[in-house]
């Protein structure tokens, strides 16, 4: 029987599927089994003659009375095409292979361009949604025109650079992202809420409601100030290397350019941080290996140091240099929403109690002209304000908690969502208390936007014009 081999119970074997050509690994559980099922195409393979599959009515098992489950010449004999395998089961071998490939890919190659292309299209979809609120954009245009003018001194990526000078501060540059028009949404909501509650409080005339309104008025200026300080500040842009191809520096890479870049340029460099390898990916748009924890923002068109996320509500990146001001803005928003909900609820409760006869006429008159002057339209505005404020509060609180959690664990929102660190813990984590102390005392690094940077942007713009001509 030179063309056959005797199976040994407990040994591992492998055979080639005659239908899908997949290598099927299996363990010999009994010497009276001569059929095995392919886990890909579900073909029943004949171990005695693998080139011809078993028929559907053939179970591939000898009757129990014809064999005593020991190795004997009377039992099943495998074809020589059935080879012994040194590995485990098929699933175990596949898992080991995938694990090995993943480990090698993480240490040798950067991630493929597919995720970059996804980010490009995601940025364009979100921007298209933002463009639908064009009727609110004039509010931002007016603010920018009054404070910055209409002609930037230079542009880089999707960021316009304006130059202003004050007697004490001196000259400085203000970066304005093209998506800054999104900041009209929170500003408009705040103006509408304040106006509605002020008018309704005046109509109701209850003195204790004006205490809440005074607090809302006091928060209005800090809210606008923190909003504009976050939107019109450098979030921590990384200095790009201007390419010889002007289109890359002007508008950023298209999805086709991202996919078709030179592979050598996309190779990552790796740095050891506290015993953990951290990737520095190549950015084809900026022409640099991104600094540690930096990411390219396709809204801004530049890499941002320690980018937490690009906030679509205010239209700007939250990064190393403006995350503190962003937290202050979110905190003021939460306080404003709490006061708005409280004031609207108090007005609604007072009007309901009066309409339900909860107080006599003298008490109602002592409270003011009140609910007698409330029209159905005012009730609708009041309820709408209350409901919207509650939803905004419920949406803002998780954001604040998420950013604070990132500060305490030395991670960013982007790093947590994309699982940047395989171990699940940031190599920059030094403990909750130390992370909080470092965040408070570290200060802001110097901005790259200075006279030298602006002159480079102008030179690049001239090269782009020459290239087009």
Automatic annotation (TrEMBL):
<feature type="compositionally biased region" description="Basic and acidic residues">
    <location>
        <begin position="254"/>
        <end position="269"/>
    </location>
</feature>
<feature type="region of interest" description="Disordered">
    <location>
        <begin position="248"/>
        <end position="272"/>
    </location>
</feature>
<keyword id="KW-0564">Palmitate</keyword>
<feature type="domain" description="Palmitoyltransferase DHHC">
    <location>
        <begin position="278"/>
        <end position="419"/>
    </location>
</feature>
<keyword id="KW-0812">Transmembrane</keyword>
<dbReference type="Pfam" id="PF01529">
    <property type="entry name" value="DHHC"/>
</dbReference>
<feature type="transmembrane region" description="Helical">
    <location>
        <begin position="184"/>
        <end position="203"/>
    </location>
</feature>
<comment type="similarity">
    <text>Belongs to the DHHC palmitoyltransferase family.</text>
</comment>
<dbReference type="InterPro" id="IPR039859">
    <property type="entry name" value="PFA4/ZDH16/20/ERF2-like"/>
</dbReference>
<keyword id="KW-0012">Acyltransferase</keyword>
<dbReference type="GO" id="GO:0005794">
    <property type="term" value="C:Golgi apparatus"/>
</dbReference>
<feature type="transmembrane region" description="Helical">
    <location>
        <begin position="323"/>
        <end position="348"/>
    </location>
</feature>
<keyword id="KW-1133">Transmembrane helix</keyword>
<protein>
    <recommendedName>
        <fullName>Palmitoyltransferase</fullName>
        <ecNumber>2.3.1.225</ecNumber>
    </recommendedName>
</protein>
<feature type="transmembrane region" description="Helical">
    <location>
        <begin position="377"/>
        <end position="408"/>
    </location>
</feature>
<feature type="transmembrane region" description="Helical">
    <location>
        <begin position="215"/>
        <end position="233"/>
    </location>
</feature>
<dbReference type="GO" id="GO:0006612">
    <property type="term" value="P:protein targeting to membrane"/>
</dbReference>
<dbReference type="InterPro" id="IPR001594">
    <property type="entry name" value="Palmitoyltrfase_DHHC"/>
</dbReference>
<dbReference type="GO" id="GO:0019706">
    <property type="term" value="F:protein-cysteine S-palmitoyltransferase activity"/>
</dbReference>
<keyword id="KW-0808">Transferase</keyword>
<keyword id="KW-0449">Lipoprotein</keyword>
<keyword id="KW-0472">Membrane</keyword>
<dbReference type="GO" id="GO:0005783">
    <property type="term" value="C:endoplasmic reticulum"/>
</dbReference>
């Amino acid at each position: 029987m030179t063309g056959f081999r005797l199976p040994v119970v407990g040994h591992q074997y492998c055979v080639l599927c005659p239908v899908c050509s997949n290598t099927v690994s299996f363990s010999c559980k009994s010497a009276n089994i001569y059929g095995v099922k392919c886990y890909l195409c579900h073909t029943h393979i004949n171990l005695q003659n693998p080139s011809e599959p078993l028929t559907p009515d053939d179970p591939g098992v000898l009757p129990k009375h014809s064999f005593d489950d020991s190795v004997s010449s009377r039992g099943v004999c495998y074809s020589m095409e059935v080879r012994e395998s040194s590995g485990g089961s098929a699933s175990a071998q596949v898992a080991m292979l995938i694990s090995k490939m993943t480990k090698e890919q993480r240490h040798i190659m950067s991630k493929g361009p597919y995720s970059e292309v996804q980010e490009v299209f995601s940025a364009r979809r979100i921007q298209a949604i933002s463009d639908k609120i064009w009727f609110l954009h004039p509010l931002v245009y007016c603010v920018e025109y009054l404070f910055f003018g209409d002609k930037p001194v230079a542009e880089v990526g999707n960021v316009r650079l304006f130059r202003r000078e004050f007697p004490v501060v001196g000259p400085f540059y203000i970066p304005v992202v093209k998506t800054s028009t999104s900041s009209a949404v929170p500003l408009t909501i705040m103006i509408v809420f304040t106006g509605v509650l002020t008018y309704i409080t005046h109509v109701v005339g209850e003195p204790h409601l004006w205490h809440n309104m005074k607090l809302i008025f006091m928060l209005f200026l800090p809210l606008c100030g923190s909003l504009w300080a976050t939107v019109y500040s450098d979030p921590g842009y990384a200095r790009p290397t201007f390419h010889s191809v002007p289109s890359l520096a002007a508008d950023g890479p298209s999805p086709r350019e991202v996919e078709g870049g030179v592979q050598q340029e996309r190779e990552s460099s790796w740095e050891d941080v506290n015993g953990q390898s951290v990737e520095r990916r190549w950015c084809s748009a900026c022409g640099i290996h991104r600094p540690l924890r930096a990411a390219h923002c396709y809204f801004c068109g530049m890499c941002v140091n320690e980018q937490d996320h690009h906030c679509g509500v205010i239209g700007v990146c939250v990064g190393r240099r403006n995350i503190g001001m962003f937290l202050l803005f979110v905190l003021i928003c939460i306080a404003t929403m709490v006061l708005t909900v409280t004031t609207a609820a108090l007005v609604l409760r007072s009007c309901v109690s009066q309409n339900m006869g909860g107080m006599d006429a003298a008490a109602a008159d002592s409270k003011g002209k009140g609910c007698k002057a409330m029209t159905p339209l005012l009730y609708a505005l009041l309820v709408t304000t209350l409901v919207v404020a509650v939803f905004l509060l419920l949406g803002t609180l998780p954001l604040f908690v998420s950013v604070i959690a990132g500060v305490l664990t030395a991670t960013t929102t982007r790093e947590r969502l994309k699982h940047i660190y395989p171990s699940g813990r940031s190599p920059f984590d030094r403990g909750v208390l130390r992370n909080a102390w470092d965040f408070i005392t570290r200060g802001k690094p110097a901005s790259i936007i200075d006279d030298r940077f602006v002159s480079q942007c102008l030179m690049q713009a001239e090269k782009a014009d020459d290239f087009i001509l």
